Amino acid sequence: MLSIVSVMKKNTLILKPRSKLSLGDLILAVSSCTKNTKETVATVADLLGSGRVRVENNGRYLRAKVC
């Protein structure tokens, strides 16, 4: 996830380096680089659907289903 944030530096975004980021952190990072909310939703959905970003709950990775 940190690599995605470092690539998407269109606008300045301040995130403390952590080993795990929340879904809110992902949305914040993506929204700082997109023009509108539709683009943000589409980008986050693509990241989750493609497996480039994984969702973890209590140490178990969950399969993100994007409809």
Main sheet: strands, sense, barrel: 2 strands, antiparallel
What strand order characterises the main sheet? 1-2
Rg over C-alpha atoms, rounded to the nearest angstrom: 12 Å
Count of alpha/pi helices: 3
Low-pLDDT residue intervals, each spanning 5 or more residues: 1-7
Q: Per the principal axes of the C-alpha atoms, what is the gross shape?
A: flat
Structural class: mainly alpha
The helix fraction, in percent, is 40-55%
Instruction: Please state the average pLDDT score.
Output: 78
- What is the straight-line distance between the termini? 22 Å
Order of helices and strands: HHHEE
Give me the count of strands.
2
Tell me the β content.
5-15%
Describe this structure in words.
- Residues 1-7 have low confidence and may be disordered.
- The longest helix is centred in the middle third of the chain and has 14 residues, at 37-50.
- The chain is 43% helix and 9% strand.
- Strand 1 (55-57) and strand 2 form a beta hairpin.
- The chain has a two-stranded antiparallel sheet.
- Helix 2 packs across helix 3.
- By secondary structure, the chain is mainly α.
- It is built from 3 helices and 2 strands.
- It is flat and about 35 Å long.
